[in-house]
Amino acid sequence: MCRVLVKMFIKAYPNEILRNDFVVSDHYLSNFRERCDLTTREAHWHRRPKDIEEMKTRIESFKQTKAQLMELFKDELWRICNADESFYGCGIAHGLTYAIKGSEGVDVHMNHNEKKGITIIATIQADGSKLPLTFVCKGLTDACHKQIYDNRVFSNELILHSETGWATKEVFQEYLRWLRKYYNDRYRENPSYIQNDRIYLFLDTYSSHRNAETKKLAKDLNITLVFIPVGCTDLCQPLDMHVFGALKNMATRTWWTYYSIDTFLE
Hints:
The protein has ten helices and six strands. By secondary structure, the chain is an alpha/beta fold.
């Protein structure tokens, strides 16, 4: 993104960039943002591979694999699915507020724990279908599921738990078993599925996904794991690129709406 901004700046102000005494004011930056249709957004950091050419090769190989599968199963896109994990906090860790000009700091007192939240595993199919969500609670027994369970909201969603609240190896293996059962229940009368029940799952390269036990289980379940290139989820992960950002923005707006009414929201 930095290279893109530099190119945009050179294009917008070709003469100013060559001046030795060039100084940028706040108004100048505001004008630049408006002129180039830019906005200020919170940054998400991604560690890129040091070898850029190798990264490009991996991305190209991944795109070719995806294109081949999409063409091969263009009439059976339900075979291809994408899973991704994301953490949703029960409160907002950062936010904007009004402050007196020149003030050194702004404190906002809240009652919620900004680290409290839940991990969600979302799954979509290449035909646009959405599978039920998987929720990962923090705890040692099924009793911790009560912290989120609600008959008005949850029906056929999968609720799991781990000591950390993250999708561990055991959690992901349970997810794979659930995914196979979901396909068996949904497509058991589909002639093509009866003949060949293979599933292709696109996912990140987390250690919980790539360990030997998980790979063996996936093979036993006839699920082919297609890994997103390391450090390139923002470029290759469909859910990360097109879905999670919008959902988190909606969740943030909803939280602030409720908090403006009830400041004791937890």
